[in-house]
Amino acid sequence: MASIISIRDLTKTYANGFSALKGVSLDIEEGEILALLGPNGAGKTTMISIICGIVNPTSGVVTVGGHDVVKDFRQTRSLIGLVPQELTTDQFESVLNTVSFSRGIHGCKANPAHIEKVLKSLSLWDKRNSALRELSGGMKRRVLIAKALSHEPKVLFLDEPTAGVDVALRRDMWSLVSDLRREGVTIILTTHYIEEAEEIADRVGIVNKGELLLVEDKAKLMGKLGRKQMVLDLVEPLKSIPGRLDEWDLKLSADGMQIVYDYQPDATPGSLMALLAALELSSIAVSDMASRQTSLEDIFVSMTGEKA
């Protein structure tokens, strides 16, 4: 599939010497959903701001739809919709006028039917004549999303779109994302809700300290880095794990009532059976067992040492 966004050796260094991006290169495919994960200050918002033409890069080249974001600003900006973190709206304007005006400033002809469709999809149609200052924070967030979609962009950036919003908006947001993807819109999101990235993204990028640590297909990433964990509840507490069990590299809980075994998802069932047999030979009785798959959050923390 063709790349709609191409980033090559992108850097951004501010006047105070802080390096926000350090030689980032990335291709984003048309029609995919890419989730960018990283702690605060990792460089995610700086990268988005450069692609959207809000911030100038120190060096490197970024193209959107084959157009350079610096040299061909008007062409690239018309292809992009951006939902920023901050609530930046004219508080005294109506919802309908705000969203319609946003379409106009991107050089698009009036299309009341499209504006109505967008507002209805975000449960804003009943509020179309309300002033923005009369809306709740969640409703204002919906208006930002509507503005970003007003000119029918080919690429949609969602910068922490559901941070601090209610469950209903989050549900509507991801339903809308699914609809847009079916229409061929490329979606790039940053999020602190790793379960959301795990649920909807095709690929996951991990950004930390201005560097792109990896970009990987979500399923392949989970397969390569993910591990499973078997937790064995014991009938009686154990003071230490017998030496004959060293090959399994087991961990004993502080109270001695659980043994934890980490293993790769593709481990053969025979290896687990061999462990259980070895426990029995060591007179260690198991009362119950449970397994869990390593989550995307576990992988993120292992790579960055921080929560997203």
TrEMBL record:
Pfam families: ABC_tran
Domain of life: Bacteria
GO function term, MF aspect, one: ATP hydrolysis activity
InterPro entries on file: AAA+_ATPase, ABC_transporter-like_ATP-bd, ABC_transporter-like_CS, ABC_transporter_ATP-binding, P-loop_NTPase
Residue ranges of every copy of the ABC transporter domain listed in the record: 5-234
Membrane-spanning intervals of the chain: none
Keywords: ATP-binding, Nucleotide-binding, Transport
UniProt KW Transport keyword: yes
Family statement drawn from the similarity comment of this UniProt entry: Belongs to the ABC transporter superfamily.
Protein name (Swiss-Prot/TrEMBL): Multidrug ABC transporter ATP-binding protein
